[in-house]
Design goal:
385 residues; alpha+beta; Beta-Lactamase; 9 helices; 13 strands
C-alpha cells in the first residue's frame, strides 16, 4: 500500500510558540508606542509648566500677551493662536494705549464689545453646567473668521476655549491647526480648560494692575496724565532722545486769570473750564505726545521728536484753539478763556549728562518762558532761546 503526503503539519507545540512570539512582538510594539507617547506627553507637560510659570511672572499687559502669542504655538504645536477679550466701552484698549501698548505688535489680539462676538454659542446655563464648555471641531471661515483674522492657509480644526473668572466670561482663547484631527468634538477638554483658566487669571491680574497704574498716573478731574507720570516719562524720553539723536520739547501752559474764573462761576464751573481746556489742548497733539496737569490751572506737554520751532507752532495752535470759542458752563452762561504758554527744547544733549538734571532744566526753561508770556500781556506763546 502506498501513501501520498500532501503537506507537512506543524506540531501543536510549534504553532503555539509562533503565536506567542507574534503576540509578544505586538505587545513590545504597543509598549514602545505607549512609552513614546508617555515621553511626549511628559515633555509637553513640562513645557506647559514652564509656560505657566512664565505667564504668571508677567508684570505688564504687553509682556503677558507677547508670551502667549510667542510661546503657546510652539509648545502646543499649533498653527494659529489668537486671543479675544471682552472690552465693553473700549476701556481696556484705551488704558493700554495710554500706557504705551503698541497694538500693531499684537495682530492676533482681538477686542469685542459683547460676549456674543466671541465666535461660539455659549448655550443655556444650567445648574449642572453653569459655564460654557470649549467648542472643538472643523474650521469654518464664515463662522470663525472673526476669531482668526490672520488664519494660515489650510487651517482645518479649531478649539474655542472660554476664559472664565468666577463663572464670568472675560474672553476666549482661540487655537487653530492645519491638522483636521487635532481638535474634534469627541476629544477631552480638561487640559485646554486648565490652560485657559491659568491664562484668564493672569489676564485679569495684569489688566487690574495696569488699570491701577493708569489711575495712579492720571489726573482724576481732567482725565489727562498727572505730574508723577510726566516726571517719569520725561526721564525715559530724554534717555531715548539722546540714544536716537532727536530733539524733545516741553510746554508749560497756564490758564490766564483762573482765580477770576473760580470767583465768577465757582469751583464747579472752574472744574468744567479745566476739563474743556484739557480737551482743547489734547486735540492739537499727536498720539506720541504727552499731556499732563501739573496742578491747579497748570498743564504741561511733552513733544517727542520736535524742535523748538515745531513746538512753538503747536503751542500757537493750542493758544488759538483755547481762545477761539467760548466755553459753555450752563445753558445761559458762557465764558471766554485764554492761556499763556512757555516753550523750551532739549537738543544735542551730551551723552554723559545726567537725565534728571536735564529734565529739571528743561522744565525750568519752559517755566521761565511762561513767566515772560504772562508778564508781557498773557494769551501768548514765548519760546526759550
Amino acid at each position: 500500500m502506498t501513501y501520498t503526503v500532501k503537506g507537512a503539519m506543524q506540531p501543536p507545540a510549534a504553532t503555539a510558540v509562533a503565536d506567542l512570539a507574534a503576540e509578544n512582538q505586538a505587545l513590545q510594539g504597543r509598549l514602545a508606542y505607549l512609552l513614546e507617547q508617555a515621553e511626549r506627553n511628559h515633555s509637553i507637560m513640562c513645557r506647559h509648566q514652564a509656560f505657566d510659570l512664565e505667564i504668571v511672572g508677567s508684570g505688564t499687559f504687553p509682556e503677558l500677551v507677547g508670551t502667549i502669542f510667542r510661546t503657546l504655538p510652539v509648545i502646543s504645536e499649533l498653527d494659529c493662536v489668537t486671543l479675544s477679550l471682552i472690552d465693553e466701552g473700549a476701556d481696556i484698549h484705551t488704558v493700554m494705549l495710554k500706557l504705551g501698548v503698541v497694538f500693531e505688535d499684537f495682530p492676533n489680539l482681538i477686542f469685542v464689545e459683547e460676549m456674543e462676538q466671541l465666535g461660539f454659542d455659549v448655550g443655556p446655563r444650567t445648574a449642572a453646567s453653569p459655564v460654557p464648555k470649549p467648542v472643538l471641531g472643523m474650521y469654518d471661515s464664515v463662522r470663525h473668521g472673526s476669531s482668526f483674522p490672520n488664519a494660515p492657509a489650510g487651517m482645518q480644526s479649531i478649539a474655542l476655549v472660554p476664559l472664565l473668572r468666577n463663572k464670568r466670561i472675560i474672553g476666549c482663547l482661540n487655537l487653530g491647526s492645519i491638522d483636521p484631527a487635532r481638535f474634534t468634538p469627541s476629544m477631552g477638554t480638561d487640559f485646554i480648560e486648565h490652560m485657559a483658566s491659568i491664562i484668564a487669571i493672569c489676564l485679569e491680574n495684569v489688566i487690574s494692575n495696569e488699570m491701577l497704574k493708569y489711575i495712579g498716573l492720571t489726573d482724576s478731574l481732567t482725565g489727562v496724565y498727572n505730574r508723577r507720570y510726566i516726571d517719569r516719562r520725561l526721564l525715559e524720553e530724554i534717555a531715548r532722545a539722546r540714544r536716537q539723536g532727536y530733539p524733545i520739547s516741553f510746554m508749560y501752559i497756564d490758564i490766564d486769570h483762573f482765580k477770576r474764573v473760580n470767583d465768577t462761576v465757582g469751583h464747579q464751573g472752574g472744574d468744567e473750564v479745566l476739563r474743556e481746556v484739557a480737551g482743547r489742548i489734547k486735540a492739537e497733539l499727536r498720539v506720541s505726545d504727552a499731556l499732563a496737569r501739573f496742578g491747579g490751572e497748570e498743564f504741561v506737554v511733552l513733544l517727542i521728536d520736535a524742535d523748538l520751532d515745531s513746538a512753538a507752532f503747536v503751542a500757537e495752535r493750542i493758544r488759538a484753539g483755547v481762545a477761539a470759542s467760548l466755553i459753555a458752563l450752563a445753558p445761559d452762561m458762557q465764558m471766554s478763556v485764554t492761556v499763556s504758554i512757555g516753550v523750551a527744547c532739549l537738543k544735542d544733549a551730551a551723552p554723559d549728562a545726567d537725565a534728571a538734571k536735564l529734565g529739571h532744566e528743561l522744565i525750568a526753561q519752559a517755566d521761565a518762558s511762561l513767566y515772560q508770556a504772562k508778564e508781557s500781556g498773557r494769551n501768548r506763546v514765548v519760546s526759550y532761546r
